[in-house]
């Protein structure tokens, strides 16, 4: 044929030019293909100028225009393939992978380029951090929630289905990473070519190796002036042990090396196992609550097939539902009629109870149940605790409902009811770290319109009582009296700090200041070192990370892991106002820090509490012993203003009467601590403890 290949379809006419131009009705459109009468027309794939039919002519969905497909040669080819990503491919052509890296090494930018080049998201809809759809993620520039997306890629005239799961990079969200890895067969390990191996790089690699994933090293940001790919490759080989001889050099921002990454995914990552004929087993790796459709479940089909309208059974909760809607994430939800082994998708079944579909549960058919459930996930252990109280007591039911729905989307969050004489009804919540705590609080306030007070963060202590009983205590108010306890143990962590050599001194000083025990130091390269300390977790829940960044001018990174409990000299520090203890301000501190913390708290309260008609003592106490004290002077009323001379006994009588009234007022009067004072003191506790 001469200038064009003419394909006549049942209800439309299509003309494709080998030079990338099409003509329809006398109008030329460069780099695009046009249809007349788009109904019942099969989508086509064009690779290197060839036209190949990928599905039947009776295609059920309307055709979208100008979708882009990545060709093997590395060029973008435009085509009308509205439902191209929904077409079935053999299991051998499915690849499930995730992107893991340290924070700010370019995961989200790389995911954006993959989505754009494969035509999953069109250029007009593209925006930075496309998969980071929470406002908090965009404001902070970090990934908080894992996100899934289905992409289409053609290599050597063969279509492949690529299921991408983007993961967070911060240590507080490592639980999200572990769930992503369980749904994949491979991972892209992205390392900044200028920064090199960082703390969370190692943590994520170890998680991937535990899950037996195929790891593809990718050196990102090679366009930066300070990029040193050869040095970073050597670091990866020496520290992690991965072969970097064929590591991919790329710049996600500039689009360099993206096609090489897509080709490596197809060639190196193994396909899922073909278990379509087995009973259905699907692993829930994420979920969220939709106010109109109920619980929406994200899952990976491990064995068997699931179809729309199937009656399904959740093996852990024992509940059964009908699958009203199933589909794929591309990255928006697209409905399909069935999903089979190896595919990743979503499920809507009008589930109203958040407890019926938990992360890690196994979905199977009600009529043909699997013999055993999937292993699921190791339950996350909270490391940091704090109290969450609504400023308006009437919002307590709303707070409980919000926490239940948020826990569905963030299974690492734990909570239980708590009451306080000063704060009212609230919840004691457990988090994986301080950033996790801040994110949860902000999500509650933004997404559920709640106004909250947060108490000072604390950790879980083990208390050995005199009656040989051991109890766990995360709330200072629940700590037994000194006469009833024999010793207190606190959690310790091993912390590894990666830093340029010029900041070794300041960081070692930081470790010593936080009651840390130096273990070892290794030089990774000539200019970078790894410092390992063991220190109490309580010393990290304050401003440790901020100090780490401050003392290293932002160049250092850290990673920590729990190692166990050790006995320490800990005391409970109570704050008393006018002789009454204020429970929310109580805290557990080391004996050596008790005086400085008590002094700082009493001075801050003196500044914040309004003056009363009587003198108010503010005291920091350990048991019955007062270690720091401040006094709020009384507001003086001039009772002598109407006395213009005369007998002195008249003045004395008035002053005596005033003193008796103030004494009586002090005995029966109560001091109201304003919410602003609580918030300011709690912020101070987070800094000084």
TrEMBL record:
It catalyses: GTP + H2O = GDP + phosphate + H(+). PROSITE patterns: G_TR_1, G_TR_2. Its EC number is 3.6.5.n1. Transmembrane segments: none annotated. Belongs to the TRAFAC class translation factor GTPase superfamily. Classic translation factor GTPase family. LepA subfamily. Pfam families: EFG_C, GTP_EFTU, GTP_EFTU_D2, LepA_C. The keyword Plastid applies. Keywords: Chloroplast, GTP-binding, Hydrolase, Nucleotide-binding, Plastid, Protein biosynthesis. One of its GO terms (molecular function) is GTP binding. Residues 92-273 form the Tr-type G domain. Its main location: plastid. NCBIfam families: lepA, small_GTP. It comes from Asparagus officinalis. One of its GO terms (cellular component) is chloroplast. Promotes chloroplast protein synthesis. May act as a fidelity factor of the translation reaction, by catalyzing a one-codon backward translocation of tRNAs on improperly translocated ribosomes. The keyword Plastid applies. This is Translation factor GUF1 homolog, chloroplastic. InterPro entries: EF-4, EFG_III/V, EFG_V-like, EFTu-like_2, G_TR_CS, GUFP, LepA_C_sf, LepA_CTD. GO terms for biological process: positive regulation of translation; translation. GTP binds at residues 101-108, 166-170, 220-223. It is found in: Plastid, Chloroplast. The lineage of its organism: Eukaryota, Viridiplantae, Streptophyta, Embryophyta, Tracheophyta.
